[in-house]
Amino acid sequence: xxxxxxxxLAVFVLAAVAACDxxxxxxxxxxxxxxxxxxxRAVPYELLATGTVEPIQTVAVQAQVSGPIVRIAFRxxxxxxxxxxxxxxxxxxxxxxxxxxQALLSRDRATAQNAxxxxxxxxxxxxxxxxxxQQNDAVRTTAAAATATVASSQAAVDQARLNLQYATIRAPIxxxxxxxxxxxxxxxxxxxxxxxVTINQIQPILARFAVPASNLPAIQKYRAQRIAVAADPxxxxxxxxxxxxxIDNTVDTATGTILxxxxxxxxxxxxxxxxxxxxxxxxxxxxxALVVPASAVVAGQQGSFVFVVQPDSSAVTxxxxxxxxxxxxxxxxxxxxxxxxxxxxxxxxxxxGVKVQIKPPGDSxxxxxx
Length: 370
Prior knowledge:
Layout: H1 6-24, E1 31-37, E2 39-55, E3 58-61, E4 67-72, E5 79-80, E6 85-89, H2 92-127, H3 133-166, E7 168-170, E8 175-177, E9 187-188, E10 197-200, E11 205-212, H4 216-222, E12 228-233, E13 240-252, E14 257-264, E15 276-293, E16 298-300, E17 303-309, E18 315-326, E19 329-334, E20 341-345, E21 356-358, H5 363-369
Parallel strand pairs: 1-21
Antiparallel strand pairs: 1-20, 2-11, 2-15, 3-10, 4-6, 4-9, 5-8, 6-7, 8-10, 11-14, 12-13, 12-15, 13-14, 15-19, 16-17, 17-18, 17-20, 18-19
């Protein structure tokens, strides 16, 4: 080969190598991401707390007279109405005591009537000076004593009649009964410390909870509008809807919180006394809030931002200002607009202008599960 052809051959070799290098370098791979949409919607402003369910009223039913139980007129755990018969004690001793008191009352009334007649007769005789003034006064005193005896006997009759009524023990409130502590045939006494049964009123029912005292001005501001409250049973179950019923008159200085109570109709019996619930106190509703999924917001050194997927599939950052969180959504403002596609998963591999590949919904969940 002549020396003049060698430079030309070298040029062709370099060109061929460059062409091979271009074919060997693939374009950068797209980053797989999942997306959500920025949108405007009505978002409630809620205060979250953990509460405890408690009955409106609790009554420990006890005997007011002593005697053996001859009948139990309900079942454990049964709903009872106010005034419904629960227990019956043996009424015979109380009936006998009432009849005896009534007989004594009749005797004393007869004695008092006779004394009143004596007073009238002695008054006539005293005017004619057939009896002394001392005798007349003695008759009047006897009549007054007889009248007082009648009053005492009437009180004894009333007490005996009341004891007879107490032999039938009735429900003082409507509610649900708890476990029975006695059975038929047991002797109960009015001095017993333990109740026969406990009744809890659970329709309606209360949930007590505490929120930071810093929220008190807002609560008082919206209280006149009947603040809505939702209670979610811990462990699952449909939420119960109610209203704020009570605001304590003092702040707990140890915790810096204020005690609140919410009332719930509880017609379905979902709330149970003593259970823990997640409480959501809804003060007001932002009717036109701009929201994005909470997982889309990234905290950076210059502030919060989101990755927005452009029509050409490139990801660009847009600064946002987070107002507040509402569940799995975040209310934001800034450069983002309704309808923007924001990246909710895969931000760690993104940078400005990188092309992305949008994964179908559910792919990220399947990847995490596997």
